[in-house]
Amino acid sequence: MPTTVVRPRLRGAVPAALALSLVLLCVCNAAGLTGSFFFPLFSLWADALLFCLTLAAIRRAGVRFQLFHGSILVAVYLVLAICLTLQVNSRAFVYVWDYSNYTLLQYQAEAAFEGGALAGLWHLISTLTEDYTSFICLFTEFPFFLSAHTGDSFVLSQLVSILPTLLVALGGLAVKLGQMLQVRNENGFFLIGVSLAASFPLLRMAAALGQPDWFGLIFTLIILLLTIDFRFDTGDPLRCMGIFFATAALVLTRRWYLYFIVAYYAVYAVTVLAGSVRLIQEGDGRRAADRLRGLITFGAGSVAAMIILFWPIVQHILTYSYSTYYAAYNVGGLALELASQSMRLGPMFLPLVVCGAVWAVFRGNRALTVQTLAVLAISVVLFTRVQNMGSHQSLLLMPGYFILMLMGAAALADSLDRLRYLKLGYWMLALAFSLSARLSPLTTIALPDFLFDYITAPSVQEFIQLDTLIYDRSDIDQIRRLARWIDSHCGDGEFAYMIPHSMTYCPDTFKNVDLPEQPLEDKLSFGFGILGTHTFPTDLFEAKYVITADPFPWCYEVSGVAAKLNDQFLALKDTYFAYEASFDMGNGTVFTVYRRIVPATRAEANAYLSAFAAEDAQFPELYSQVINSWCDQHGL
Fold it and tell me: What is this structure's pTM?
């Protein structure tokens, strides 16, 4: 028999230690002993609590880890940590847009806790209804506190705060599925399945780019573990509590995980109902009634509690037309999304998930396969009614991908007696291919870096050059030079406005180039570039300097409003602005700084309003109402 790892039980010593440590932390804070260490210590406690709760969910699902499982999880963790560290340290990446949001939120949370524990806790709570909450910041603070506080530091902090618990949850799901699929080669299945699933580039991309959205996958895996074979045949209050709180935490992680929640629970409810109907047909009406009673009680109670708990979020969802205001992100609808997801799975993982689905059907696991595919299909259809997925949003499909990958791994492991070396070769090639993939913002098909040198097609080369400019920048010194010029030429209360708003160059590029230093935080405006999301930038009328570039930076933008703003500015600049300075970025792009010499007039504002007449017809609250309100406030 395999040696069993000593497992912490959430009864007795472990919960007592967690409770005592929290009490001790609060007492020390009240006595003024923790100082600036309260937030990181509280974060460490939260990480420990989540890890223990994940182990408790795994045990509740009937999974018992053996020494072999623990050894594989440790080995996979070390490989992933080493690979990500090497990738981060070998590139020159400036964190902009979504890639800097959580780093900046971490700074804000730290600043809030400097005002005291209560102020910090209130800050965390007060952000829970926002699109980007500080919920994740609670779990990432402990390692981040000990780091250099750069964007790269935030990425690597996730290796401590997120990856261990995520791998344990993934390992629990692998063992559970191995039981359900009745895999014969259990150890081979676990090794192949966990290593392949954990190395999937789409999973690691969010981590590599400073987007800890993958944190939510911990809760999706807990939900899967607690529900995948639970049919309410018996009362299980602790399991139901785990499902509820994992779902609530998932909502707090990122709001778009709601698409997975809706799809998964819809399929789950149908599965329980179908099973109940089958029991009635078999003459076991009492058991069917118990299932239906449990489903309705838990479902109705959970929905009611969620509405009460998250009423501000529910209210916003019901009153805000995401499909209208996010239309700029809907660049191809369902057909494009299906093609995109096929490319994201790539040449290594697409055959694996297809093989897994086919193998499971032929092995008699048709129901689980259909349920998994149904969840994926519903999630994609619901999401594309609003927009197409980016790489981080595609994480909501990862639970389904995980199951199909593990099915594929089961097919490989159970048939190793045939074509053994070919299958082992595929496994090792897939690992090498995936772990060396470039994890950049423009990655669609994850390919190893060295393959880019062999791609010669002109259209693809243009894309690769753009991708390289963003992922491994050669213009860091030039970016710093312009940033320092802005800092030195804008005094207190003065600021500049930058028109380019692409992934290649935007205000964030210059504001975040030297994180954690942010000298331009109040000296360079945010910018304007997404139709339906960004309001017209009246800062353009008040800025001391306006900065543009030639050629105008373009990076597969989802809308062209920044370029239209630039065209109108160039048509008016000779009347209101004078040339001040120029900066060559060394790659063909030249930034030019113009100084305002004539105060903004109503005629200037009307010229912009006329240029954006079509956009104003769609979103008057973002254009004419904003411009007219500014003019009224300034007596124009």
Answer: 0.94
| The Cα angle at residue 538 between residues 535 and 542, in degrees rounded to 5 | 155
- How far apart CA 426 and CA 349 sit, in angstroms, is 11
At 546, list the tokens: 């306006």
Q: Which residue has the tokens 């942010």?
A: 518
Please check whether residue 341 is in contact with residue 380, taking contact to mean a CB–CB distance below 8 angstroms. yes
The Cα 125–Cα 133 span in angstroms is: 9
In this structure, the number of other CB atoms found within 10 A of the CB of residue 91 comes to 17
Geometric angle at alpha carbon 303, from 229 and 252, rounded to 5°: 85
> Under a CB-based contact definition with an 8 Å cutoff, are residues 277 and 292 in contact?
no
Is the link from the previous residue into 516 a cis peptide, with omega within 30 of 0?
yes
Q: Does the pLDDT value for residue 9 go beyond 70? A: no
Question: CA 258: distance to chain centroid?
Answer: 13
Sheet holding 496-498, edge to edge: 496-498, 545-550, 590-596, 577-584
Q: How far apart are CA 346 and CA 341, in angstroms?
A: 8
d(CA 141, CA 162): 11
- Which ranges constitute the DSSP H helices of 310-446? 311-319, 322-325, 333-362, 366-384, 398-414, 420-435
Could you count the other beta carbons within 10 Å of the beta carbon of residue 143?
21
Instruction: For residue 605, give the nearest of 557, 539, 529, 549 by alpha carbon.
Output: 539
Q: Return the SS3 of 577.
A: strand
What count of residues does the chain have? 636
Whether residue 558 has pLDDT greater than 70 = no
Query: What confidence tens digit (pLDDT) does each residue in 515-550 have?
Result: 999 999 999 998 898 898 899 999 999 999 999 999
Nearest Cα neighbor of 469 from 84, 88, 94 is 94
- 3 state SS of 545: strand
